[in-house]
Amino acid sequence: MIEDKRWKGVYSFDDSPYLMEILTELRDKETDSIAFRKGLVKLGRFMGYEIIKTMETEKVKVETPLEETEGIIVKDRRNVVIVTVLRAAVPLMEGLVKVFEHARIGIVSASRGKPPKFEIEMNYVKIPQITPEDTVIIADPMIATGSTLVRVIEEVKKYGTPKRLIVLGVLAAPEGISRIKERFPDVEIFVTKIDRELNDKGYILPGLGDAGDRAFGAPIKLSNLPQVHPIE
Ligand SMILES: O=P(O)(O)OC[C@H]1O[C@H](OP(=O)(O)OP(=O)(O)O)[C@H](O)[C@@H]1O
Ligand SMILES: O=c1cc[nH]c(=O)[nH]1
Ligand SMILES: [Mg+2]
């Protein structure tokens, strides 16, 4: 885990060959949906494991079948709220719950509109109450313009003030990170890698394409479907 010099509290995993190998497979345009989803699950699990290293631990006594010895518990691991941003964060959440098995889960939908405004449509929000003991992890694989996450963080903050508010992503553009940090300086950001820039359509370069479409297939408009005749 490396803290990026450009911001405070922004970390990437360029120093992890395993995470970089998973990312390489996700970037590859030949990777199919099955492998793509599996890759996101792995990243959720292993980045979750890295986040645990930043949590406070407490010494405890434990009785083995032979004698008493010292152990630890990671107390904050038991007070986690994962907020999943539909669609693309679903496999990331699947990985995260493998290491945060006690987590309460929030689900929000956020769909990014067309450039240049990139307006965010958010019509489904289910978030549990957040307490001062909680670590909130907002999972969204792509931080491009940052519009989605700024909108999601605004919403999450209405449900309480956590001990830590973390954004967990796969790829980020510097523009998106700056946007989030300017608005919410205390939010911590953990991403597999920070990429070069955005193109004029708001896609991350070199990136991995549209994460939602690659994981789940591209949706089509109903009007593009062949005429279906109702069954009499
Ligand atoms: O930082 P931003 O510029 O806001 O872009 C990032 C958002 O774009 C993608 O979602 P998208 O709107 O494509 O929805 P999807 O997950 O359903 O594909 C991605 O999962 C982020 O939520
Ligand atoms: O590169 C990008 C930018 C936004 N959303 C994606 O899925 N990919
Ligand atoms: Mg998408």
From TrEMBL:
<dbReference type="GO" id="GO:0004845">
    <property type="term" value="F:uracil phosphoribosyltransferase activity"/>
</dbReference>
<feature type="binding site">
    <location>
        <position position="204"/>
    </location>
    <ligand>
        <name>uracil</name>
    </ligand>
</feature>
<feature type="domain" description="Phosphoribosyltransferase">
    <location>
        <begin position="15"/>
        <end position="217"/>
    </location>
</feature>
<dbReference type="GO" id="GO:0044206">
    <property type="term" value="P:UMP salvage"/>
</dbReference>
<feature type="binding site">
    <location>
        <begin position="209"/>
        <end position="211"/>
    </location>
    <ligand>
        <name>uracil</name>
    </ligand>
</feature>
<dbReference type="GO" id="GO:0006223">
    <property type="term" value="P:uracil salvage"/>
</dbReference>
<feature type="binding site">
    <location>
        <position position="87"/>
    </location>
    <ligand>
        <name>5-phospho-alpha-D-ribose 1-diphosphate</name>
    </ligand>
</feature>
<comment type="pathway">
    <text>Pyrimidine metabolism; UMP biosynthesis via salvage pathway; UMP from uracil: step 1/1.</text>
</comment>
<feature type="binding site">
    <location>
        <begin position="140"/>
        <end position="148"/>
    </location>
    <ligand>
        <name>5-phospho-alpha-D-ribose 1-diphosphate</name>
    </ligand>
</feature>
<feature type="binding site">
    <location>
        <begin position="38"/>
        <end position="42"/>
    </location>
    <ligand>
        <name>GTP</name>
    </ligand>
</feature>
<dbReference type="GO" id="GO:0005525">
    <property type="term" value="F:GTP binding"/>
</dbReference>
<keyword id="KW-0342">GTP-binding</keyword>
<protein>
    <recommendedName>
        <fullName>Uracil phosphoribosyltransferase</fullName>
        <ecNumber>2.4.2.9</ecNumber>
    </recommendedName>
</protein>
<dbReference type="InterPro" id="IPR050054">
    <property type="entry name" value="UPRTase/APRTase"/>
</dbReference>
<keyword id="KW-0808">Transferase</keyword>
<comment type="function">
    <text>Catalyzes the conversion of uracil and 5-phospho-alpha-D-ribose 1-diphosphate (PRPP) to UMP and diphosphate.</text>
</comment>
<keyword id="KW-0547">Nucleotide-binding</keyword>
<keyword id="KW-0460">Magnesium</keyword>
<dbReference type="InterPro" id="IPR034331">
    <property type="entry name" value="Upp_A"/>
</dbReference>
<dbReference type="InterPro" id="IPR000836">
    <property type="entry name" value="PRTase_dom"/>
</dbReference>
<dbReference type="GO" id="GO:0000287">
    <property type="term" value="F:magnesium ion binding"/>
</dbReference>
<dbReference type="Pfam" id="PF14681">
    <property type="entry name" value="UPRTase"/>
</dbReference>
<keyword id="KW-0021">Allosteric enzyme</keyword>
<dbReference type="InterPro" id="IPR005765">
    <property type="entry name" value="UPRT"/>
</dbReference>
<keyword id="KW-0328">Glycosyltransferase</keyword>
<comment type="similarity">
    <text>Belongs to the UPRTase family.</text>
</comment>
<feature type="binding site">
    <location>
        <position position="210"/>
    </location>
    <ligand>
        <name>5-phospho-alpha-D-ribose 1-diphosphate</name>
    </ligand>
</feature>
<feature type="binding site">
    <location>
        <position position="112"/>
    </location>
    <ligand>
        <name>5-phospho-alpha-D-ribose 1-diphosphate</name>
    </ligand>
</feature>
<dbReference type="InterPro" id="IPR029057">
    <property type="entry name" value="PRTase-like"/>
</dbReference>
